Here is the input.
Amino acid sequence: MEKTVKEALKEIVGEENFTDSLIDLIAYAKDASEHQHRPEAAVWPIRTDQVSAIMKLATREEFPVIPRGAGTSLAGLAVPEKGGLILDLGRMDRIIDINIEDRLAVVQPGVIYAELDRALSPHGFFFPPDPASGSVCTLGGNVATNAGGIKGAKYGTTKDYVLALEVVLPDGRILHTGSKCMKSVSGYDLTKLFVGSEGTIGVITEITFKINPKPPVTSTAMATFETLEDGGQAISEIMYSGIIPSALELVDRQSLKAINENTDLQLPEVEIMLVAETDGYTKEETEFQMKTIMEIFRKNNATMVKHADESKGGAAALWTARKSAYGVMARINNNLIVEDLAVPMSKVPEMLRAISDLAKKYDLQIPTVGHAGDGNLHPVVSFDGTDPDQVRRVEEASEELFKKVIELGGTLTGEHGIGLAKIPFMHLEHDETSMDIMRSLKRLFDPKNILNPGKMGLEA
Ligand SMILES: Cc1cc2nc3c(=O)[nH]c(=O)nc-3n(C[C@H](O)[C@H](O)[C@H](O)COP(=O)(O)OP(=O)(O)OC[C@H]3O[C@@H](n4cnc5c(N)ncnc54)[C@H](O)[C@@H]3O)c2cc1C
Here is the structure.
């Protein structure tokens, strides 16, 4: 990047909001994935007009710009594959408005997910997507990745809550999409086009979310199963029983083993453990739903069914077990790839079996956790990246994994996105016509290919 360009950037954001120091650039070379590429500079804009001026400069001088939230992407979405400028939105972090009458929250992109949830709580409202990274990831990142979480089966994902956006386009123009109405079919749905677009077609500078009243009562239970088939059948039966759990999470044997080795939770090391949560407005309603779920657990040969005692923190302990999974798996080996896939719910047992077979075939450890209620699984591949043979086995296993996903009618990613990690598999899911349309859209918005270039397989 030319010195004159760096000076122009300082003019736009101020000297204190610009960096090209090596230590900062090394930090910005990574997100939470295994990918690494160093940028040439980074800026922290605080206003939309600054973002617009930066994009105008980038279009004129033709340097890459990578929008960035908290950098928690697990698929290489936020790393600057072609160098250029990191546009860190973290200082645009104001909750602009919480409007309970209209069920809306208007925020800047750098607001942390958990901060919005905290601000909504006194009003008895919540923002449901609930990614496991919610204490650190930003709402701009959540929109750009269409983040989801443990409440997906009942409450959907981020896309179900985005009503309107302010977006700065690659040429610097400012676009307003959507409206503050709960319903609108006015023109093409440009809002949804930006949800999950991974920072490739515009920089999100303001978001209007729909928010939900928070059901005050929850109930939690866990069950263990000695076979994948029993656990899988229980998942299916719950999901067509008429009850929609607010969460239905699974943890497999290898994950339980890893959790036990690194915590004092002493979980039973069974083939599959399920944790279910129901929510509602009265205890009766919530317990009625949970009773149905526990009956289904028992009918499908659960070896243990335990209803958590909320008053003794039992539910919190169960969620700690589930949520500690990534942390403890990171200790298994030097490198970790948190995979992300989704299959139709009825195919969950077959997918789990295939993952277990791949682990044996390639002699790898692949503990798996997942959102069983919406078929979204996270096989976690741990390996030693300094060993070329292990790296080769991981690559071969990944290819076979995603072929199986597509064969089962699944999708390459339920919530983490394509980024750099899934580019080699895009052709498995998307035919040439859909790739052609996606590339045309990218060219329409970003003819000079300056915004987060090299992602999503749009250049092939
Ligand atoms: C421990 C852990 C647990 C996780 N659990 C979940 C989970 O349960 N569910 C889930 O969905 N994800 C999960 N993730 C992945 C990640 O947290 C999400 O993808 C999250 O939405 C990324 O937010 P971020 O602020 O970190 O964005 P970043 O990682 O900084 O960026 C992600 C993408 O969004 C783009 N982007 C960011 N801000 C903007 C903006 N303002 N305008 C345009 N583009 C932008 C970037 O260019 C990039 O392409 C997890 C990650 C970790 C490390």
Observations:
- Residues 31-32, 66-74, 77-78, 89, 109, 131-133, 137-138, 140-142, 144-145, 147-149, 198-199, 203-204, 326, 415-416, 452 surround flavin-adenine dinucleotide (CB under 6 Å).
